Request: fold
Amino acid sequence: MDFISSESFLNFLAHVGTGFVLILLGLVAFAFTTKFSERQLIKEGNMAVALKLWGKMIGLGIVLYTVWGGSVSLLDAFVWGLIGIATQVVAYWIIEYILTPKTSLAKKVEEGNTAVGFSLFAAGITVGLVVAGSLTY
Reply:
């Protein structure tokens, strides 16, 4: 009795691999929104930076989950995943430069301001939910 066909398993692996590629692309894109090394500051224990980064990643994960459920092909899913990454970056710039022009959120996070880090964590998830909802039209 064959429960999982080789074709469906290979399809699964293609989607997982594409998802991980999109996650890595997201990490790279998000790194370009800051002038400091998020990786280094997280290694040093900066919780604010960790919250900011992983809020965006959770938001992107939510988008990818929705994309996988509604896409017609792997290429379609990949393109919508890229759109999700771009939307997260643009949303961060809007929050940083338009909604809070007199406060450098990046500087506050770099300094370890956990309240700002958590606010950006929540914003990343919120953006992900809005983008995911927009993909279910």
Residues 6-31 form the longest helix (26 residues). The two ends are 39 Å apart (CA to CA). Helices lie at 6-31, 38-43, 47-70, 74-99, 105-110, 114-134.
